[in-house]
Design brief:
It contains 4 helices and 28 strands.
Length: 519
């Protein structure tokens, strides 16, 4: 019951984390809640975006965006607008208004509804490598207020107005004429896509926000893309910051899936590797790997015992049960990753060292970095002291031209063993930059009293008194019994007495003579 309650609380916390409070957006000066009417909602529903609520999800943020390498601009509708507007992008200059010479039109004034246009930023001389904003240019004549047949132009001296996603730079953003021209919606059917719904009249309009509606794919809002904790269980705990209704929210990087033997709570139910059919009939899931079931007599490391599940555990942990995010060490439950230092490039999850990007699929404009899909560095600015690598990831300048062998990593310009300093989970060792399972030593089949033994190794009835004579084989014991630990006797062997003792002494003497000859 307690487990179910904890799970319910975690799911509730996750829901709150990804569902920002819906705040009504109203036009300034006591204006109406926008958008007015159902036209925009009908448009969303026709596009399969019924999860979007035109009024409740309306937002005027984010104002700035981080682009992918290739953006797609789609004109959804011009509605009943009297103007032939154009839509485009510009490079954000933090704290400064957009440069009038840096306004790049993507959707021209004669584009029909449904037209698409592509912006490739990789190697684009107009792109400066940072955040971008969007603008709508209208041909509105300042005298008559109308120019329905005019094609909007961004050229100097051309009539019209520029309205930006950075609202503070709009010509009617302040004072008595203050007006909101743009509502922004994050798509619920397509990842990293946003709708831009505009009103195009200076300081006024019908507020239905269908004068110009466009969608831009392959952008994320400023501040998005970073890793976060959703508060959910298992694999669903790893999240990515994304925009929801204009604010950053922590959304799961992956959704729950069928449980499999990999050390991860795939179905997000709070239990790791649970299920009866994760492995074959003769195997059991142990620490994220399907292994042969152990037997009580053999198959475990020294200091371990074979449990009823068929897995080897520390003797002190045989009767200890730990939570899903813990493991037993020396009879007590500790954090699953406590004491584990993974090889360079790997991350500890559920008590094992894994590649954080394993199983993460990113589209062509993004690359996985520490488990999160981020835009390729050709289309974003790397940090100071870093260079954009050929794989789309930022790399330290000192390592930009260094190529290391398998199992090595570049550190400050030098190739280092990825296993240096690594502390793998119990039962594993670091090899070639990865923690691999160390197979237990097979002690062979257990002894059985019914088994026929050679005469020299006959079982002896312990109830029969035997005259036992013990001798020390000395430094040549390895000649008598190769591979022994220095003791010239074997457990379970017949005691040395009578003719056996004489034979053993003869062998010992021959060994000594041979040793003296070598000297």
């Amino acid at each position: 019951m307690a487990h179910r309650l904890l799970r319910l609380l975690a799911l509730l916390a996750a829901f709150v984390a990804v569902t920002p409070s819906a705040l009504a957006i109203n036009q300034p000066r006591g204006g109406p809640q926008i958008p007015v009417g159902d036209a925009l909602q009908t448009l969303f529903s026709m596009r399969g975006e019924s999860a979007l609520r035109a009024r409740d999800d309306a937002a005027i943020t984010p104002e700035r965006f981080v682009p992918g390498c290739t953006l797609t601009f789609t004109l959804i509708t011009r509605g009943q607008a009297a103007f032939r507007n154009v839509f485009g992008w510009y490079n954000v200059r933090p704290g400064m208004a957009p440069d009038p010479n840096d306004l790049h039109v993507l959707i021209p004034c004669d584009a029909p509804d449904g037209a698409t246009f592509t912006l490739a930023l990789r190697g684009n001389p107009d792109y400066r490598g940072g955040e971008i904003g969007f603008f709508l240019r209208t041909p509105e004549d300042g005298t008559s207020g109308r120019c329905s047949q005019c094609c909007a132009r961004v050229a100097a001296g051309a009539p019209g107005h520029n309205f930006f996603s950075e609202r503070q730079y709009n010509p009617d953003s302040m004072g008595a004429d203050s007006y909101i021209h743009l509502l922004i919606y994050d798509s619920r059917s397509t990842a990293n896509a946003f709708y831009f719904a505009w009103e195009d009249l200076y300081s006024g309009g019908d507020n239905n926000f269908t004068d110009f509606v466009a969608r831009v794919d392959s952008v994320v809002c400023s501040g998005a893309g970073g890793a976060c904790d959703t508060g959910m269980m298992g694999a669903c705990a790893a999240g990515v910051r994304q925009c929801r209704a204009g604010v950053l929210a922590c959304l799961p990087a992956v959704t729950g899936s069928a449980e499999r033997c990999d050390g991860v709570d795939n179905d997000c139910n709070g239990q790791v590797d649970d299920g009866a059919s994760l492995c074959g009939a003769t195997q059991v899931c142990d620490r994220g790997t399907c292994v042969d079931r152990c037997r009580a007599e053999l198959g475990c490391f020294s200091g371990e015992v074979c449990t009823d599940r068929g897995t080897c555990v520390e003797t002190a942990c045989a009767t200890v049960s730990c939570a899903a995010n813990q493991r037993c060490v020396a009879g007590r439950c500790v954090g699953a990753c406590e004491g584990i230092v993974c090889p360079m490039g790997l991350a500890c999850r559920a008590g094992r060292c894994v590649d954080p990007c394993q199983g993460v699929s990113c589209d062509g404009d993004n690359v996985c970095v520490e488990g999160v899909c981020t835009p390729r560095c050709e289309c974003r600015r790397c940090a100071t002291g870093q260079t954009c690598g050929s794989d789309g990831r930022c790399v330290a300048d000192a390592c930009a031209s260094v190529r290391c062998a398998d199992g090595q990593r570049c550190v400050e310009g030098m190739c280092r063993d990825a296993c240096a300093g690594a502390v793998c989970p119990r039962g594993e060792r670091c090899e070639r930059g990865a923690c691999v399972v160390v197979p237990p030593v097979d002690a062979g089949p257990p002894r059985d009293s019914a088994v026929e033994y050679p005469d020299a190794l006959e079982p002896v009835d312990a109830s029969t008194p035997v005259d036992v004579k013990v001798f020390d084989a000395g430094p040549d014991a390895d000649l008598l019994y190769p591979g022994n630990d220095g003791c010239a006797c074997r457990a379970g062997a017949r005691p040395v007495t009578g003719t056996h003792a004489l034979g053993a002494m003869a062998v010992s003497l021959l060994a000594l003579l041979r040793r003296r000859r070598r000297r």
